[in-house]
Write a sequence for this structure.
């Protein structure tokens, strides 16, 4: 059964019987019912419109809520990505800095080892040169001693005595023979010739041997 409308109520006809209701009162009551029913319908329509508007707002708010939730999720993902990328960049920077520091330390150690090695090589070379210079001085001194002894022996010989008229049996002064033995080694200076060939120049004193 369909719902009555105000027109249905207005157009409703009733059969007239004896001792029935007063038609005017019934009509007035029906008119009142029609008015109230019309007001209820209008109010219902208004409430339905308000309900639709409210539902539309609810749907809009729900859409905004979903969009906001999606935005929050995207923002959280973006923040996580930024944080992860920042951590990765920081790790990469730290790794590069550590690698650079290790390289500097290795270079410094290699340079230190190289300098120490060169110094040790120079010390060994200088010691060899000093030993060679001492040996050369000893050999030169021994050679000079032999030459001087030979000269002294020749000067004290018979030929010189006959030439200068000195007695043949005149003894040679012992001080002349042993002077070289009693003297200390002559000072010797050694200097590098300025080149890197490791040759050492021996400089003998200018003072003549007496």
């Amino acid at each position: 059964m369909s719902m009555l409308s105000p027109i249905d109520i207005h157009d409703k006809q009733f059969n007239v019987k004896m001792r029935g209701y007063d038609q005017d009162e019934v009509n007035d009551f029906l008119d009142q019912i029609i008015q109230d029913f019309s007001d209820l319908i209008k109010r219902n329509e208004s409430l339905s419109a308000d309900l639709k508007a409210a539902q539309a707002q609810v749907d809009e708010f729900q859409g905004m809520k979903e969009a906001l939730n999606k935005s929050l999720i995207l923002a959280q993902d973006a923040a996580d990505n930024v944080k992860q990328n920042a951590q990765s960049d920081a790790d990469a920077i730290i790794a590069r800095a550590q690698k650079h520091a290790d390289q500097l330390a290795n270079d410094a150690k290699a340079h230190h080892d190289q300098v120490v090695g060169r110094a040790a090589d120079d010390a060994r070379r200088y010691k060899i040169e000093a030993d060679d210079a001492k040996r050369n001085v000893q050999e030169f001194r021994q050679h000079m001693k032999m030459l001087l002894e030979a000269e002294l022996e020749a000067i004290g010989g018979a030929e010189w005595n006959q030439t200068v008229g000195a007695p043949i049996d005149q003894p040679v002064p012992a001080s002349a023979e042993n002077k070289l033995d009693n003297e200390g080694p002559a000072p010797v200076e050694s200097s590098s010739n300025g080149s890197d060939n490791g040759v050492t120049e021996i400089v003998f004193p200018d003072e003549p041997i007496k």
Observations:
- The CA atoms of residues 155 and 161 lie 8 Å apart.
